[in-house]
Amino acid sequence: MRAVLLLSTGWAGMQNAAGRIMRYLTAGESHGPALVGIVEGLPAGLKIEEDYLQRQLARRQGGYGRGGRMAIEKDQIQFLAGVRFGRTTGSPLALMIANKDWQNWQEVMSPHPAAETDARKITCPRPGHADLAGGIKYFHRDLRNILERASARETAMRVAIGNIAALLLNHFQIRGAGYVCALGGVEAAPRPPAWGVEMIRRKTVSSQLYCLDGEAEQQMIAAIDRAREEGDTLGGIFEVVVEGLPPGLGSHVQADRRLDGRLAGALMSIPGIKGVEIGLGFAAAAKQGSEVHDTMRFAAGKRISRASNHAGGLEGGMTNGEPLVIRAAMKPIPTLQKALSSIDLATGKTEDAAVERADVCAVAAAAVIGEAQVAWELARAFLEKFGGDSLLEIEAGWRDYQQLKQDYLGGGS
Ligand SMILES: Cc1cc2nc3c(=O)[nH]c(=O)nc-3n(C[C@H](O)[C@H](O)[C@H](O)COP(=O)(O)O)c2cc1C
User: Fold this and answer.
1) pLDDT mean by block of 10 residues, the chain; 413 residues
2) How far apart are CA 178 and CA 373, in angstroms?
3) Which domains does the chain have, with CATH numbers?
4) Which of helix, strand or coil describes residue 306?
5) What three-state secondary structure class fits 328?
6) CA-to-CA separations, 278 to 99, 200, 258, 314, in angstroms, rounded
7) How close are the terminal C-alpha atoms of the chain, in Å?
8) Do 152 and 136 form a contact (C-beta atoms < 8 A)?
9) How crowded is residue 268: how many other Cβ atoms within 10 Å of its Cβ?
10) C-alpha 271 to ligand 1 mean position (Å)
11) Beta-bridge mates of residue 26
């Protein structure tokens, strides 16, 4: 009897760690008919709050400094499969977001050979974009075949998918928020330690740049206006904070299970992100150990209390029970109205790079995408630990873990 029990527990664990990892795929070109997404591995019974998802999509479209495209689109999620009467069924989810702008691009983006045209063909790659490397890699003479997919338009679907993952985390009182901490060289005042997720949400909702520091925000807006006048672009830094995480998501035992690496990868996969830091990040390198590591003590009720959170909620590749604090740096937008020097692959001559309609700055939107990417990776780690086919099973695993953790800490005295 005991052997059977152990066997069944072991099998369930293997399923969680390897067989049933949540995954997604997206497809869609910037000016194609639609973006589509498929998500597999979500448990049955999760409530899909469409209003919440729509609000996140609207936030991604916002932020001072965006180009004309965002005025055309009004992103609207359609569920094609996997949701019934407002709850997930456990089947793969299929989502669609239509591109309104496609109306203006039907001929240029036609899938039919008879419609082939040189209209809007691009042969001058933009420095800083996928155009050149992608053109050589796939041997495309028309670089539009690369830039249509490399465009950050795809991140609309990632925001939808990541926020479905956030709904799962929210169910277990795990909540995150992102904000802009620097833009175009203007740095906002550091976030006061007492300002957690609730405060970030409250402050950013009325901010044009999802920034916590009103004075710095005015300087950032002025910097964007200047860059626009000069035909130039700007980048910046955003931070994502997540509260309510249990200790033990991710693992130290294998390189690809370390959550710090996975989260960094998730943020680095956002187009334009060039650096990620966790907690003190790069600043830790110049400090002494005694200034960096977060001392611990037992507080009332065997609660663990840390004097600081320089580790940003991750130690040994695992969550440690403190809030996750992660930042990402975005390079300036590579499409400049004051075109950069490039080459024409058709003529072999030096020419100006192609100029598409473009954002002057998209760091605020990137913060929303960052929240979604972080939520996705945390939800995957959460399901690896507490996974099951239904929300009911996950709730049971979650309750057990809370109790066992309490017993473990109580037993240590
Ligand atoms: C929300 C968002 C909006 C963006 N808007 C534009 C844009 O309008 N024009 C552009 O050239 N790049 C834009 N980018 C940046 C490019 O997608 C990115 O710099 C490019 O894909 C190359 O980045 P990589 O070298 O990190 O792949 C945007 C990025 C994000 C995250």
Assistant:
1) 36 42 96 98 97 97 87 90 98 97 94 92 96 98 97 97 98 98 98 96 97 98 98 98 98 97 98 98 98 94 90 98 98 95 97 90 98 98 95 97 92 55
2) 11
3) 20-411 (3.60.150.10)
4) strand
5) strand
6) 35, 18, 13, 8
7) 34
8) no
9) 13
10) 5
11) 37
Could you tell me which residues come within 8 angstroms of residue 387 by beta carbon, excluding any fewer than 6 positions away?
Answer: 15, 16, 20, 43, 393, 394, 397
User: How far is residue 312 from each of residues 220, 256, 280, 350, 352, measured CA to CA in Å?
Assistant: 26, 20, 7, 47, 43
358 lines ligand 1 (CB under 6 A): yes
335 CB under 6 A from ligand 1? Answer: yes
Handedness of CA 77, 83, 87, 89 (dihedral sign): negative
Which protein residue's CA is at the shortest distance from atom 27 of ligand 1? 271
Percent helix, strand and coil across the chain, each rounded to 5? 40, 20, 40
237 C-alpha vs ligand 1 centroid, how far in Å?
14
Kindly give the distance from the C-alpha atom of residue 208 to the centroid of ligand 1, in angstroms, as a whole number.
20
The owner of tokens 């830094």 is 237
The whole-angstrom separation of Cα 388 and Cα 13 is 10
3-state secondary structure of 149: helix
* Whole-structure pTM value: 0.94
- Other C-beta atoms within 10 Å of 20: how many? 18
Residue 271: partners with Cβ closer than 8 Å, 6 or more residues away: 150, 151, 152, 155
Q: Tell which one of 60, 66, 129, 132 to mutate to probe ligand 1, the residue whose CB is within 8 A of the most ligand atoms.
A: 129
CB burial class (10 A; 0-12, 13-18, 19+) of residue 411?
A: exposed
